[in-house]
C-alpha cells in the first residue's frame, strides 16, 4: 500500500513539473546576443503545447501560443541600432545584455577557420596576437558554432552551446580563437558605423561547398538537384560502410550534412548576410563551381527567410594548383550573376608553398569594403575589383577596357615588368606578354618599372605574336596578381578566346 502511495505522489509531482515546464528561448538568444537592426527580428523557443508566451524587448510586447510540438515564434518590429544593454524576455526566460546592430555569419573551410591567434605558425594570422591585445570592443561580439559534427537531418538545437563573447583580449586570445577573417571584417564594420556588431562563426577545414548547402538550395539549381535527394549516412552507417569498403568519401563530404548540423539551428535568425571563404576542396569542379555557389546562396536566403541576404566571398588565392584560374573564373561568374553577392579578389596574397596565406587582415578589409559600399551607404568607398568590360585587337596588340578601374599600377617587389598576361596567335601557343603603356623605370633598366601605367585601358602585346587571337591573365605559374586598380584592388584571372 505504501509503495502505491509513493508511486502516486511521484506521478503527481511529475505531472506538476510538466505543467510548470519553463519557457525557453531559442538557440541564438543567450546573454550578449546582438539582434539585427532595421528588419523584423524572429524570436523563437519552446514551451508546453498550447502555452501562451509573451516576448518583451525595448518597449515591444508580442505574444504567441506554443504549437502541438511545443514550438513558438514571434517577430519583433524593426529597431534602430542600440548600444544599450537590455533584457530580452519570454515569460520567465531571459537573455541579458542584448544589443541591436549588425549581424553576420562567417562560414567556409580552413581559410575561414584560420584563427586570429594560435600555436601553429602556419595556421594563424600574422598580426593576430597583436590585434587581439589591442582590441577592447565590448560592442562587437562573436559566437563560435563549429562543433565538427554532421547530421543527416536538419537540427533545431545545436550540439555546441551558444555563448556570445565580446571582442576583448581575454576572449580573442583564448582558444579556440575565432576566425581571423571574421574578426577583421567585424572590426571594420564596427569602426565605420560605430554600432554593435555580432558575428557567428561556423567552419570546418577541408570541407566542400555541398555539405554547407541546404536541400532547398540544391534543389533550386538543376545541375545540383541530385545532391538534394542523395541518401545520407549517419555516423553508425558510415562507419559500417567504411569498414565494408563501400565508401571512399569522408562523412563530412556528404551534401547538406554541415548545414543540417551547424547552420539550420540558427534559422530564421535575422542577419544582414554572410561572408564566405571556401573552394579549395572544390577546385577540381572548375567552372561547375558557379552553379554550386548559386545553390549555396539560394538555400541560405530561403532558409533564413531573407530574400535580400548578402553574400560576400573570397576568390581563391593561388597556392600551387595548376588549374586554379578556372575555379576563380567560376567564382567571378557567380558574383556577376547574383545581385546580392560580391567577391573579394586576393590573388596578390597567395603563397605557393602554403594553402593558408596568413594575411587575413587584408581579406577582412576587402570583404568589409563590399558591405560598406553596398549596404551601409559609403558611396565613396570603391569595393569592386576590376572586371573586363570590352576589348579589341589593333594590329598585334590587345586593348582592354575595364569596369571599376579609373587607373592602374603594377607592383612587383623586384621592380620587374612581368605581369601575368599571355597572348596566343593562330597556332594557339601562349607567349608571355608586356603591358605597352607601362612606363619603364629609366633608360638604364628596360626590364624594370616603377609600376606607373598611363591611361584607363591596358594595352598588351606579346613579342613575336603578329596576329593575336587569345589572351589570358594569371593562367600560369605563379598565378600571383601584381596588377591593381587605382583603388588598390587587384585584377582577377580572366581569359579571351577558348
Note down, in words, how this protein is organized.
The chain is built from 12 helices and 25 strands. It is of the alpha+beta class. The radius of gyration is 26 Å and the shape is globular.
Compile the SSE list and pairings.
Blueprint: H1 2-19, E1 24-25, E2 34-36, E3 41-46, E4 52-57, E5 60-65, E6 71-76, E7 82-90, E8 93-108, H2 110-113, H3 128-134, E9 137-144, E10 165-167, H4 169-173, H5 180-193, E11 197-203, H6 215-219, H7 225-228, H8 235-244, H9 257-263, E12 273-277, H10 289-303, E13 310-314, H11 324-337, E14 341-344, H12 360-375, E15 387-394, E16 397-403, E17 408-410, E18 421-424, E19 430-432, E20 434-435, E21 452-453, E22 458-461, E23 470-473, E24 483-485, E25 494-496
Parallel strand pairs: 2-8, 8-11, 8-12, 9-11, 12-13, 13-14
Antiparallel strand pairs: 1-3, 3-6, 4-5, 4-7, 7-8, 9-10, 15-16, 16-22, 17-21, 17-24, 18-19, 18-23, 20-22, 23-25
Helix pairs in contact: 5-12, 10-11
Evaluate the radius of gyration: 26 Å
Overall shape: globular
Reported for the largest beta sheet, the result is: 11 strands, mixed
Segments where pLDDT lies below 50 for 5+ residues?
1-19
Structural class: alpha+beta
Number of helices: 12
How many distinct beta strands?
A: 25
Helix content: 10-25%
Q: Give the overall pLDDT as a whole number.
A: 94
The amount of beta strand, in percent, is: 25-35%
Tell me the distance between the termini: 90 Å
Outline of the structure:
The chain is of the alpha+beta class.
Summary keywords:
alpha+beta, 4-stranded antiparallel sheet, 12 helices, disordered N terminus
Amino acid at each position: 500500500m505504501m509503495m502505491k502511495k509513493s508511486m502516486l505522489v511521484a506521478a503527481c509531482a511529475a505531472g506538476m513539473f510538466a505543467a510548470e515546464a519553463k519557457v525557453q528561448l531559442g538557440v541564438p538568444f543567450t546573454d550578449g546576443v546582438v539582434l539585427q537592426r532595421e528588419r523584423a527580428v524572429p524570436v523563437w523557443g519552446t514551451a508546453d503545447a498550447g502555452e501562451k508566451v509573451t516576448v518583451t524587448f525595448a518597449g515591444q510586447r508580442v505574444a504567441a501560443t506554443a504549437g502541438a510540438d511545443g514550438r513558438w515564434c514571434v517577430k519583433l518590429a524593426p529597431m534602430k541600432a542600440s548600444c544599450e544593454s537590455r533584457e530580452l524576455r519570454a515569460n520567465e526566460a531571459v537573455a541579458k545584455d542584448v544589443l541591436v546592430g549588425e549581424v553576420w555569419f562567417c562560414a567556409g573551410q580552413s581559410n575561414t577557420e584560420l584563427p586570429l591567434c594560435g600555436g601553429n605558425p602556419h595556421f594563424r594570422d600574422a598580426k593576430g596576437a597583436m590585434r587581439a591585445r589591442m582590441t577592447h570592443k565590448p560592442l562587437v561580439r562573436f559566437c563560435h558554432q563549429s562543433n565538427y559534427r554532421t547530421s543527416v537531418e536538419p537540427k533545431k538545437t545545436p550540439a555546441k552551446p551558444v555563448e556570445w563573447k565580446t571582442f576583448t583580449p581575454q576572449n580573442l586570445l583564448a582558444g579556440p580563437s575565432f576566425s581571423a577573417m571574421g574578426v577583421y571584417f567585424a572590426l571594420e564594420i564596427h569602426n565605420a558605423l560605430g554600432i554593435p556588431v555580432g558575428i557567428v562563426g561556423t567552419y570546418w577545414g577541408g570541407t566542400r561547398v555541398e555539405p554547407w548547402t541546404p536541400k532547398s538550395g540544391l534543389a533550386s539549381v538543376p545541375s545540383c538537384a541530385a545532391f538534394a535527394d542523395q541518401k545520407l549516412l549517419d555516423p553508425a552507417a558510415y562507419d559500417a560502410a567504411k569498414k565494408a569498403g563501400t565508401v571512399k568519401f569522408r562523412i563530412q563530404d556528404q551534401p547538406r550534412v554541415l548545414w543540417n548540423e551547424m547552420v539550420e539551428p540558427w534559422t530564421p535568425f535575422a542577419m544582414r548576410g554572410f561572408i564566405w571563404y571556401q573552394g579549395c576542396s572544390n577546385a577540381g569542379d572548375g567552372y561547375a563551381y558557379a552553379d554550386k555557389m548559386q545553390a549555396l546562396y539560394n538555400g541560405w536566403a530561403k532558409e533564413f527567410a531573407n530574400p535580400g541576404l548578402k553574400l560576400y566571398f573570397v576568390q581563391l588565392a593561388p597556392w600551387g594548383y595548376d588549374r586554379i584560374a578556372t575555379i576563380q573564373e567560376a567564382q567571378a561568374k557567380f558574383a556577376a550573376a547574383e545581385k546580392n553577392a560580391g567577391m573579394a579578389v586576393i590573388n596578390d596574397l597567395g603563397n605557393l608553398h602554403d594553402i593558408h596565406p596568413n594575411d587575413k587582415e587584408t581579406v577582412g578589409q576587402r570583404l568589409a569594403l563590399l558591405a560598406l559600399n553596398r549596404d551601409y551607404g559609403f558611396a565613396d568607398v570603391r569595393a569592386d575589383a576590376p572586371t573586363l568590360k570590352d576589348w579589341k585587337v589593333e594590329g598585334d596588340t590587345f586593348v582592354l577596357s575595364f569596369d571599376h578601374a579609373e587607373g592602374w599600377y603594377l607592383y612587383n617587389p623586384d621592380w620587374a615588368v612581368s605581369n601575368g598576361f599571355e597572348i596566343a596567335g593562330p597556332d594557339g601557343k601562349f607567349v608571355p606578354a608586356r603591358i605597352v603603356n607601362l612606363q619603364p623605370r629609366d633608360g638604364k633598366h628596360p626590364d624594370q618599372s616603377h609600376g606607373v601605367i598611363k591611361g584607363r585601358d591596358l594595352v598588351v602585346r606579346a613579342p613575336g605574336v603578329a596576329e593575336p587571337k587569345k589572351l589570358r591573365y594569371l593562367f600560369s605559374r605563379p598565378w600571383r596578381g601584381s596588377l591593381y586598380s587605382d583603388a588598390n584592388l587587384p585584377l582577377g584571372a580572366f581569359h579571351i578566346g577558348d
